[in-house]
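Hi R.,

Here's the chain you asked about this morning:
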Amino acid sequence: MNRRFFVANPWNRNDNIYSTLMLLIRSQTLHSLPLIHASDDAILDDPIPMPNVSLVPFTFVPLPLGSIIPLGWLADQLGLMANGLAGRQYEFYHIVHNSPWLGGVSEYSVLNEGLPYWFNGLVPLAYGLNDTRLILQVENVSDYVLNRQQSDGWIGPETSVADRDLWARFPFFLGLIQLVEAEPSRAAKIIPAMHRFVQLMHSMLIEKVGFDQIWGSVRYQDMLISLQWLYEHYPEGNQEVLLETMYLLKARGLDWSGYWTEGSFIYRDLDTVKHPITDKSPLFPFTHGVNAAQGLKTGATLHRFTRNESLLDNNRNGVNWTFTYHGDPAGSIIGDERESGINANRGSELCTAVETMYSMSYLYQTLGDNFFGDRCELAAFNALPVSITSDHWAHQYLALASEPYSGPLEHPTPFWNVGHYGIVYGLEPNYPCCTVNMPQGLPKFLSASFVRVGDNGIGHALLGPAQVITSTLSNTSVTIRCDTDYPFSPVLNYSITSSASFTLHLRVPSWYVPANSSISINDNGAEYPLTPDPRTGMTSIFLPAGNSTVTYTLGAAIQVLPRANSTVAVYHGSLLYALDVGQTMTTLTPKLYNVSYADGDPYHISTPSLPPEVHDFAFTNTTPWNIAIDPSTLVFHTTANVLNHTALPNPIFEYGAPPTYITGKGCQVDWPLYKGLPAPLPALGNGIKHRNCTGNVTDVILRPYGSLKVHMAELPTADLSPNHTRQPSLRSHQGQVQKVIDKRVF
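And here is the predicted structure, written out as tokens:
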């Protein structure tokens, strides 16, 4: 088992958690039956305990929003967000500025989810930066919406009872609980409004209404988080209703635990299953990429109130299998819009990346497995930045691991349900959900970066430059400042002040190299080896009252991990490295979704006045992309000066800005195009380990994936040693050796 991924075992069955639905679909052929929920009768699955019982505690207790502030490159990135597309949408973007939630008419879906998505991400961005302009925006939105709460408790723009669907309230409530954490004075208005809505939701679930669309029934875990937060922090005497509503959501929702079982989960490429998974199939909600990312935390949310221990290993299986069979090398889930397999010419939505980050940070807080922290960092440092221009004014809807071109494609595209503009960088290159949902990524990463550990400990869970001012559960006041260029540097420097002795816990990623890793305290010259906990990865340091310094060094080595079709992905630490194929950028006229995507359904829009920074962009490679590498030649380099710290370039994910890179040797190979993008290569035959070169040996450079808007991250291999015997040429899917001729550089 490699350190980055679990090895999925499809035969690891747990009979105790099979549901009726999943027993029926062991052969994955139940495409004609209607959707069956976890239970057809409310609250019959589990006995409901008496009110006032405690929920299962977090392994690592999250801190209130605003306790942690960003430093270094992370502060730079959040600042770019605040002054870019994320932080300016309220001023000009029609889905937010003219939302039905604010009395307008612009919405891309009957779900009315646009503004709730934005609100859920803007609250942590505003308070993570303590940005007065953004704080005023989220406070104004909260006041406007809650001032118009309907008499029966409904929150939202829907005026007809028949039009009510619960889903869009889920992200809006996540925004509200963060707002109360950051501004407790606003609890007097927000908390009663939330409880009035919960009373209504409780009755709606009993009456079996409010889940007319699939989205709420598959994404209910987000509302469970808000209900559990109310239960623990602001119960207001409504514990019984809160607890019953949790059980009702479980009963009315779709059964993730049943899907995550052998015989039910689809391990194969969904394009190759006997009965195709369409948007009408009962398994579609589980195979929708964004649903899959949100669903990854379901078992942990359910376990907190059911105390059903079987849910935990089942949840671990779900995460393991999802990334093994449907994960991309950058830490996200391949789904365009539906999952397929793990071919590098299929894409991952930006929505999926940010939801994956949130699920992984939540799972690390609840279950405490180090793997979840690794996965959150992997997505944050790779999948997220590759999808956003370095100035944070444009984004992709879809990112591909093998993408030497990111511009308009011809119809039909290679994707399941993404238009020809889907890999363009822009304001609204495809379905607008990613435009409004992208703000939650880094702000929630920041707010989950430090945690409380036990009675008298503080832990650095998600590594990066930040400062936390907080207290332990036993009321020791603690200030911790971490100055670091991680993940672009192996050294993290901590300055700590505490009112009494406490324990500092530092997460040790599973990829660390013990011989090159150490901790030193108070510059005493002694270095100590890391002793990470086998499950959580936390290494512990007892510190006395007063001032302390800690230097934490994480040694890393190049890792070459196998991917589909006899290709590999290259990592150093938590960064994925991709082939630098050069890039040129072409500026395009901004297009809205129902203009750029010929098959898109029209939606109500106002005519926005776009800021001059808003453009669409296409990127094209300038050097050959059809390269195989010799992994034995790879060498890691850094230009960073660890001893004499200097600030990283801003923006750090600009092309050529990161201080780290990998050099090696490679050669061109036969590699056809499929619908305008690199085709999946055929797997190598038995006994064949490498591809046959079609060109001379050349020097190659691999750079951090997030800085390359065009790139090749899944690469075939070649043996370029002097004594290597040339192997027969591989043939394309059509059985003919093809020389690809294309307007792009080959």
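One quick note: The domain at 450-553 is CATH 2.60.40 (Immunoglobulin-like).

Cheers,
M.
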